[in-house]
């Protein structure tokens, strides 16, 4: 081992212990920096800006967490199945868990909205008004966004202590500054696409569904929507050997007992099951209303009742 003289030791100590520490971002600075991004996401995707900001503050420690600094991940979103972008590993509920890594904070905010908007378990939140941050906070907790039992109250306290609810009232899209434009260009040029999946929709019979795409399977649809295969099969009255066709309605919730409409005029070679899918009615109920079996093939132009006749 080399010997160091007294002067050398002093220099070594100074160079190792007198380095300036990384600057800590304050909460007010975080809010000022990202409020416009939260407002933009609210106006485009319907998530309260106050909720987005409060989650960002809480999950990223005002942008100072290692996950935020090294991976631009402000919302603690883990990789999950289907993520094909960069990754960052750190201990969380378990050791060395996989988190999504982004090229910019803008991308993190965008993916946060996409994550909530396309996950079935969060779908009910979008029935709430953007001004009702308390219901959103409790809804996120009930849907399992975080394991902390106080998660809802933590979000609500952050919103009210920092007056974040004022941003929920904004109805004009904020202008994009130069830095945000740079981030957006970087995102388009370098960032991988988000998970490709069918867009969640709501049937007129108030049932959430997606439209099957080319190459889809019931298993794939279940995985993309974080559901069990048995749920998809049960809600759509299918068996494991059945395969969806592109354009098929695939329900993510149980169908209803009746339709708002009274009857349907059967099309050419239209089956009872296909009619039940069109109107979001349980096949067994549809058959009962018409005194037919599930295998019955209606003739073209036949009147099929969609609710019990008086």
Would you kindly provide a written description of the structure presented here, covering whatever features stand out?
The protein has 310 residues and is mostly helical. It has 2 domains: 27-190, Lysozyme, CATH 1.10.530.10; 201-305, Membrane-bound Lytic Murein Transglycosylase D, Chain A (Roll), CATH 3.10.350. Helices cover 41% and strands 7% of the residues. The chain has helices spanning 6-17, 27-45, 49-60, 66-71, 105-118, 133-142, 151-161, 178-190, 218-224, 229-235, 272-279, 283-289; strands spanning 87-90, 97-100, 201-202, 208-211, 249-251, 263-265, 303-305. The longest helix is centred in the first third of the chain and has 19 residues, at 27-45. The protein starts with 5 loop residues before the first helix and ends in a 5-residue tail after the last strand.
Topology:
Blueprint: H1 6-17, H2 27-45, H3 49-60, H4 66-71, E1 87-90, E2 97-100, H5 105-118, H6 133-142, H7 151-161, H8 178-190, E3 201-202, E4 208-211, H9 218-224, H10 229-235, E5 249-251, E6 263-265, H11 272-279, H12 283-289, E7 303-305
Antiparallel strand pairs: 1-2, 3-4, 4-5, 6-7
Please name the defining characteristics of this protein:
310 residues; Lysozyme; Membrane-bound Lytic Murein Transglycosylase D, Chain A; 2 domains; three-stranded antiparallel β-sheet; two-stranded antiparallel sheet; 12 helices; elongated; disordered N terminus
Q: Could you name the CATH class of the largest domain?
A: Mainly Alpha
> What is the CATH fold-level name of the largest domain?
Lysozyme
User: Mind telling me the C-alpha Rg?
Assistant: 26 Å
Number of helices: 12
Quaternary class = single chain
State the total count of DSSP E strands. Answer: 7
Which secondary-structure class do the elements indicate? mainly alpha
Q: How are the strands ordered across the major sheet? A: 3-4-5
What is the terminal separation in angstroms? 98 Å
Biggest sheet overview? 3 strands, antiparallel
Order of helices and strands: HHHHEEHHHHEEHHEEHHE
**Chain-averaged pLDDT:** 83
Question: At CATH's second level, what is the architecture of the largest domain?
Answer: Orthogonal Bundle
Shape: elongated
Number of domains: 2
Percent helix? 40-55%
Residue runs with pLDDT of under 50 for 5 or more positions:
1-20, 184-196
């Amino acid at each position: 081992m080399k010997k160091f003289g007294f002067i050398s030791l002093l220099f070594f100590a100074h160079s190792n212990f007198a380095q300036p520490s990384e600057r800590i971002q304050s909460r007010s600075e975080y809010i000022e920096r990202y409020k416009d991004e939260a407002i933009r996401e609210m106006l485009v995707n319907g998530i309260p800006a106050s909720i987005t900001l409060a989650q960002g503050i809480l999950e990223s420690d005002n942008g100072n967490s290692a996950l935020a600094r090294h991976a631009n991940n402000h919302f603690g979103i883990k990789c999950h199945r289907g993520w094909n972008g960069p990754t960052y590993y750190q201990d969380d509920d378990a050791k060395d868990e996989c988190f999504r890594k982004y090229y910019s904070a803008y991308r993190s905010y965008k993916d946060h909205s996409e994550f909530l908007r396309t996950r079935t378990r969060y779908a009910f939140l979008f029935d709430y008004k953007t001004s009702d941050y308390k219901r959103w906070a409790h809804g996120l907790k009930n849907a399992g966004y975080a394991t902390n039992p106080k998660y809802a109250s933590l979000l609500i306290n952050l919103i009210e202590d920092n007056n974040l609810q004022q941003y929920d009232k904004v109805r004009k899209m904020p202008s994009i500054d130069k830095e945000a434009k740079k981030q957006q260009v970087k995102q388009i040029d370098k960032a991988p696409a988000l998970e490709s999946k069918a867009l969640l929709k709501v049937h007129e019979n108030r049932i959430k569904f997606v439209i099957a795409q080319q190459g889809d399977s019931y298993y794939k649809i279940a995985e993309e929507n974080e559901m069990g295969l048995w749920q998809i099969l049960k809600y759509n009255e299918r068996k494991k050997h059945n395969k969806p066709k592109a354009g098929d309605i695939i329900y993510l919730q149980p169908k209803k007992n009746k339709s708002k409409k009274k009857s349907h005029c059967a099309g050419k070679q239209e089956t009872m099951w296909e009619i039940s899918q069109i109107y979001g009615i349980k096949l067994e109920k549809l058959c009962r209303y018409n005194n037919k079996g599930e295998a019955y093939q209606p003739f073209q132009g036949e009147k099929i009742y969609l609710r019990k006749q008086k």
